[in-house]
Amino acid sequence: MTRTFPYLLLPHLWSSRNRARRRERGDLPRGVMFGGVGLVVFAALFQGSFWLAGHLQDYEELGDYLLRIGLSWLFLTFLSFLAFSGVVTALSTFFLADDLRLLVASPIATRRLFHARFFRTVVQASWMVVIFLVPVLLGVGWARCAGPLFYLTAIGTVVPFSIIPVAAGTAVTLLLVNTFPARRARDILMLMGLLFAASLVIVLRFIRPEQLLRVESLPDLTDFFATLQSPVTPILPSFWAGETIFASLAGGHDLMHAAALWTTAMASIVVVGAASERWYFSGYSRSQEAPKARFTHFRALDVIASALPLSTVRRQLLVKDLKIFLRDVSQWSQLLLLLALVLLYLYNFSVLDLQRIPYMSGYLKNVYALLNLAMAGFVMATVAVRFVFPAVSSEGAAFWIIRTSPLPLRDFLWSKFWTGLVPVLALTEVLTIAANQFLGVDPLLKVMAAAAIVLMSFALVGLAVGLGARYPRFGADPSQAAGSYGGVAFMMQAVLFIIVIIVLVGWPSSVYLLHHVRHAPFTIAQQLLMPASLALAIGLSLFVWLSSMRSGVRALEGMGA
Amino acid sequence: MIAIENLVKRYGPFTAVDGVSLEVPSGEIHGFLGPNGAGKTTTLRMIAGLLKPTSGRILVNGHDLAQEPEAAKMSLGFIPDRPFIYDKLTGGEFLRFHGGLYGLGEPVIAERVREMLELFELTRWENELVESFSHGMKQRLVMCAAFLHRPRAVVVDEPMVGLDPRGARLIKDVFRRMSERGVGILMSTHTLEVAQEMCDRISIILKGKIIARGTVAEIRAMGDGHDDHLTSVFLKLTGGSGLQEIDEIV
To answer: A248-252: long-range contacts at Cβ-Cβ below 8 A with a sequence spacing of 24 or more?
Structure first.
């Protein structure tokens, strides 16, 4: 008689307990930082939804109507996120997780293994959505003075709502693993990444936020609401969830939609469980085959690398890093999402019609230019912590090759720096220049922003490489390194650095622009402080860049001492 | 205890295991030898229920693995070449979890965990996290887990890799004692000395097919008769070229 499925969750619970008991270095600052950020986000979401729900109440029926559509939209967005997250998580939990080798060889019924893995998949895929929904629904309930029944209904709605898309995602994964050549199992991630990015673009395009700024379109309210309501269809669980919660908010019950949610959730578990019993083992067996190498005949990479003015050693390091990166789909598929978000970001700037605010447009444009610079800085920090910070850690168990070779560790680390710098600089420069072009900001600000990006790129990539060398995690997955002590330390320092640079570059730029508009001469203090401020920005960037690299090299050289 | 009939495993056009039949009766230690890439690990992983055979039949303690997977796995212990152990569990927690997977009750688990930790000289590490274990200790912990539920048959993939002489001697003694108690052991190894010393019978696999089978004496007789060791006959049967690497030449 084997144990029931919750028994299979015990190792994760025990592991979490052991991890909590044996604190690691950096747990406290990490906890403080993540906890602090979490609290701020929680408070902002609560306040935002409280404010919105409160104001909508002033418009009676129209307010209720907008709140109802808003809830459906909120759940619709999460529905697509959960389905995508379900596919990716199920691929990992059902087919790629290391402990499956132990569990599949044990006398456990497939159905029990399915239930345990499905539970884990639902939790892993939906925790972010749930954490987001809690303050939002609390805010809405608070604003409408809802009773305890509303909160119970919310829990009873979110649970089946999370199960349904994750079950669909699990079914898709099961199908894909059994249909596609098994050697491409991880490629599914890339495919799903593309689909998700595309769906994100489409969903956001549906909203057409630029319409909200066009006053002349307001009389045609029917069209506006029709557009707003077009993707909200009654056959989707997001609609059922929205309706159930809205009815409860108004003090009533919508048992039909609640029942639809629960019966569909239960039925989907039964159906996917049955499918899993039939096809899981064949899929798992196929997923163990060695993945086929990509880019084995990608000669262009070697040709380009050989054309670069690099020493043989640096060329070989570059080619090795690029090939490993390109062959690991889980690494670069995340770039697709980033690309989609960047495109959306630029698209939003292109449709932002600031000319409609005549007295403010010039001022707003330049404020936006500085905001854009800050945003580009944060994108840069995010890309750096995810892709540049783990550069040393990604050597993993093979780092002995570097350490035992005659290659100076200084050269090794600088090779990592240049490999990281080029894409980060290119991405953020394009982002900044294109956004400023769309905004039509002052030419001086364009130049200043482009120059600031160069400074920030050198400093942040240097900081990421240096801290990555000081706090390497050779055993961990590169994607996990970002959440380690070093990763968190990098993010804190990076954010601080970006803020300081924005102030040092933004202040002289805004002073210059004000004088340019008013045609007034600069004061002597301004004439002295403006170049000093810019010089300080340059000096600080150079210091962060070079000192981080030097400390990284020292850490590598002192390794094992 | 273990019987496999015409086992085939294909990966697209490549046949990794090609019609292998094998029988490991109760109390026998059966060596499974072959050069790298010959199909040893694939065969063992199919017996352990980790890979689905393209065709063929696997019986463990009389249970067909395809028809009664749980009953078959209940009678089997599997020691993989690269074992997975939860790093953040202690040695004792890992063994208790493992015992539960095989349906053992709490009192039985407690007694067997103590017994196995003593047998494999890991008692003082019971409450330490697995992540702090050396390779050899992890290997011994996995062996504790494999024998914890008193299997009728054990499948072992490269048991001696990374073990010091004392650890290797311990494993050999345990395997011998288990086989005396009637456990059938199928063991893949590159170490011909180990095979020669421990195995009652040996099968040699090459390119997915069994090319020789018999007792150590019978296999040795297939060589030129001048060598007391299995090395020369192994090289003769498997081609012995530099391309087919042998990890250890005695």
So the answer is: A248/A146, A248/A149, A248/A150, A248/A153, A248/A154, A249/A67, A249/A140, A249/A141, A249/A144, A249/A146, A249/A150, A250/A64, A251/A146, A251/A147
Six token digits for residue A172: 């898709």
Q: What is the pTM of this model?
A: 0.70
Q: What is the mean pLDDT of residues A224-249?
A: 78
d(CA A426, CA A41) in angstroms, rounded, equals: 31
| Residue B86, min C-alpha distance to chain A (Å) | 7
Nearest CA in chain A to B66: A281
Q: Are A427 and A383 in contact (CB under 8 A)?
A: yes
CA distance B64 to B49: 11
Taking CB atoms and an 8 Å cutoff, what residues of chain A touch B51? 285, 288
Residue B3 in 3-state DSSP?
strand
Q: What is the pLDDT of residues B14-51, one digit of tens each?
A: 899 999 999 999 999 999 998 888 999 999 999 999 89
Q: Is the pLDDT of residue A231 over 60?
A: no
Alpha-carbon gap: A466 to the closest alpha carbon of chain B (Å): 27
Using one digit for the tens of pLDDT, what is the confidence trace for A31-86? 787 788 788 888 998 998 898 888 887 777 777 888 888 888 888 888 888 888 88
Q: Which of residues A158 and A370 earns the better pLDDT score?
A: A158
Residue B159 phi/psi, 5-degree rounding, is -70, -20
Angle CA A59–A60–A61, to nearest 5: 110
Contact A433, A516 (CB under 8 A): no
CA distance A134 to A146: 14
Contact predicate A262/A256, CB 8 Å: no
Q: Secondary structure of chain B: what % helix, strand, coil (to 5)?
A: 40, 25, 35
Structure tokens that stand for B114 in this block: 């103590």
In chain B, whose CA is at the least distance from the CA of A475?
B131
Q: What is the mean pLDDT of residues B151-178?
A: 88
CB contact under 8 A, B70 and A2: yes
- CA distances for A298 relative to A189, A304, A308, A326, A510, angstroms: 22, 11, 17, 11, 49
Residue B231 has a pLDDT of 76
* Among B74, B80, B100, beta carbon nearest to A101: B80
- The residue with greater pLDDT, A201 or B102, is B102
- Count CB-CB contacts under 10 A for residue A336: 18
Residue B153 pairs with which residues in a beta bridge?
A: B76, B184
Q: Pseudo-torsion of CA A502, A508, A510, A515, nearest 10°?
A: 180
Q: Does the distance separating the beta carbons of B97 and A14 come in below 8 Å?
A: yes
Residue of B nearest to A109 (CA): B70
Q: Are B20 and B205 in contact (CB under 8 A)?
A: yes
Nearest CB to A282; choose among B52, B97, B101? B52
CATH code for residues B1-75+182-250: 3.40.50.300
- Residue A271 has what pLDDT? 96
From the list B69, B84, B90, the residue facing A98 with the nearest CB is B84
Tokens 């349904």 locate to: A164
pLDDT score of B242 more than 60: no
Chain segment A378-421, per-residue pLDDT in tens: 889 988 988 899 989 888 877 888 887 778 889 899 999 999 99
C-alpha dist (Å) from residue A296 to A329, A363, A510, A549, B207: 15, 53, 52, 33, 26
Q: What is the DSSP letter of B57?
A: E
* pLDDT tens digits, one per residue of B77-88: 999 888 888 888
Handedness of CA B148, B149, B150, B151 (dihedral sign): negative
Among B49, B70, B84, the residue with its CB nearest the CB of A99 is B84
